[in-house]
Model the fold of this input.
Amino acid sequence: MILLNDNLPWSEKHRPKSLSELVGNPETIKALKAWIDSWMLGKPSKSAALLIGPPGTGKTASVGAISNDLDMELVEFNSSDKRNKDSIETLVWRAASQMTLDGRDRIILLDEVDGLSGTSDRGGVGAILKVIRDAVHPIVMTANDPNSPRLKDLLKVCQVFNFGLIESDDMTTVLRYILSENQENVSEDILEEIIENAEGDLRAAVSDLESQVRGGSSSQTITTSRDIRRGTEETLRHLFATNDSKMARRILSESELPHDSLILWLEENLHLHLLTPKELNDGFEGLSLADVSLGRIMRNQNWKLLAYVYDFFATGVAMSRTKTPFRRVVYSQPTWPLLVWQGNRKRDKQSKVRSSLASLTGVSKRRVQQTHLDTIQKIIEINPKVLKNFAAWLRVEKSALVRKRNR
Ligand SMILES: Nc1ncnc2c1ncn2[C@@H]1O[C@H](COP(=O)(O)OP(=O)(O)O)[C@@H](O)[C@H]1O
Ligand SMILES: [Mg+2]
Done:
């Protein structure tokens, strides 16, 4: 992967290079370092480490920092590498069980072991266990979800290190540092808001700060749906990283991102991964086929078509990347339609419709259902063609206006 440093997302560009630059979880990190140190004396009985904690709490960063501080070679396998039994048996095993050429010590990092592969990939866990048995170097794994069934067998042979959420003060320190490094500034209010929204996820805070500075997005954009953003970026990254269409399909079916928003995000970001005209053309073709099928599903409730939607996304869009190498990129949010769908997430979909109607008609939000919405929905039922006009007028997603029992 060739990347100019300036094109790196801030969360990559500002990876802490030394333990002294790391914030949060000091005790855990100290213990982790001691465990790695203990390898110098020989393979410990628990010969692999499992770092468990929510995203953006410094798990990956601390392994990088420790390897730098101890001048060890870091061999990193992350979840966008094809994480199957074969590659673990060959690539990872080789890295773990052979000495380095220059005699330097090595750390093997298997990042996000609970990530892509789901529970079906038991073979993968078996392969990891074998790697751990044969390893002559410390193996460090990271995982987000302590309850993932994938971890069950790993937990027995691993020393566990728990990472907790990053405190606000610590996040402030890091964000201010990054701002000054980049000679940028944001207001105190925005900084506070970013931190509050990140809910202890430092990577999220850093990437929100970056979009704030680069995009100058309104603070309202930040407050919306931290979780959606996180899931979305992951979905896109994994989707474009894989070159296996079955895997792409699975990534999509496991993603919590609603299909209509997936279309918007893909539309906005496709060109970052598909750089040749042919790739772009194929990508957009797949996208529009997905869009058409999705429209049919919504109109006719023909959910059988959903399988094809996945295919169009997976094969049509993700598999269109045939030439351009996979790169990590900063995804941008779709422009206005995003604000619409964000406001329309299940729970507050109806409420959005009512407040929009209320402000347009002057009737209170509580009464507007009887005075206007019932009628509008009746009209739409009789003449579905006007749905999009009403949706545009009210600035809501079309599905928000379709009555529940019709779905
Ligand atoms: N001092 C710091 N301590 C920890 N993380 C930092 C620091 N400064 C910046 N960060 C950012 O936070 C991110 C931490 O995320 P990471 O270690 O990848 O989390 P995890 O692996 O737990 O999901 C880093 O990529 C980096 O951009
Ligand atoms: Mg990580």
Remarks:
- Residues 46 and 158 are 5 Å apart (CA to CA).
- Residues 25-162 form a domain with the Rossmann fold fold (CATH 3.40.50.300).
- The mean pLDDT is 81.
- The beta strands are 48-52, 73-77, 106-110, 139-143, 158-162.
